[in-house]
Amino acid sequence: MAAHATAENIKDVEQRIKDWGYGVNTIYGQERTVVGAVGVPEADKADYAERLESLDYVERVIAILRPYKFVSREIHPEGTIIDVKGVKIGGPKIVFMAGPCTIESYEQTLDTAKAVQKAGAAILRGGAYKPCTSPYSFPGLGEEGLKILKQVSEDTGLPIITEVMDPRNVDLVCEYSDILQIGTRNMQNYDLLREVGLARKPVLLKRGMWAKIEEWLQAAEYVVLGGNTQVMLCERGIRTFETHTRNTMDLSAIPSVKQLSHLPVIADPAHGTGRASLVNPMTRAAIACGADGLLIEVHAQPDKAIKDGAQSLNHEHFAELIQECRPIAQAVGRDI
Ligand code: PEP
Ligand code: MN
Known about the structure:
Elements: H1 7-19, E1 23-28, E2 33-38, H2 45-53, E3 82-84, E4 87-89, E5 95-99, H3 106-119, E6 123-125, H4 143-156, E7 160-163, H5 170-176, E8 179-182, H6 190-198, E9 203-206, H7 213-225, E10 231-235, H8 253-260, E11 265-267, H9 269-273, H10 276-288, E12 293-297, H11 315-331
Parallel strand pairs: 5-6, 5-12, 6-7, 7-8, 8-9, 9-10, 10-11, 11-12
Antiparallel strand pairs: 1-2, 3-4
Helix pairs in contact: 3-4, 3-11, 6-7, 10-11
Phosphoenolpyruvate binds next to loops.
């Protein structure tokens, strides 16, 4: 719809599509409204497009063949910018989200939050609900972990991101967190995707470790169809035959997804490699190939971390990492 379209104009377009016998799905974005017409046969698309385009409150009609419409770049060629308490993700600045894999205590979280903030991170990460391959691993502190994160967010002013695993917990996590993280294991948990689609908090959707790019974008489409257009995609490594690294960080996914979709793209080189010594080079490479942000695991003493110590940077190495990324960001016309 055109920027000047009124609620009445939107209703009119919806009604026309319904009268022609097709489904309607309207997405109310921050900047514009997109009315999706679902089920129009290929042969008739040009005809209907012409009729709708003759209305002055319709900006343009786009025929989409892909299995996802609302996350495709055609819908929003200029790209989506997500605003998290003033931190803009998808704009010219590259955003670092950093913190421990797992919330262990208030003191640990505050200590690391201050360190990453001083180094240049704009968002604090930390897991309260941990998805674990082993049922014997630490499952996270749960709501107590959320309370710690919120307290540290108030102490430091850093917005927070944390994982939500269970559709029944989405409202609870929304009370505490500024961004909802969907983990790799839940990328195709459609009940969870639908539930976060109803939330009004930005969502970071990790790529399933087995998922093709098309499946990942279809998962994002589930969230957007719920009306939540604030979605970012996170490449965190996929399974291959290689065992030297924990996963294979698919850097080519970053420019691929940027071409296919208007959503911001984040890189997670910690889970992508499983090795702290590879986090720095992969972070720089991710920035060079167009990532809008990074998700990095940081711990004061990685050897003592409850989870993912082998891929966590200590405070000093994280500060060095950001310094070393600045020239790379500048080389590709961006800033941190
Ligand atoms: C995490 O971010 O700590 C995490 C569990 O990530 P993933 O879902 O990518 O394994
Ligand atoms: Mn982790």
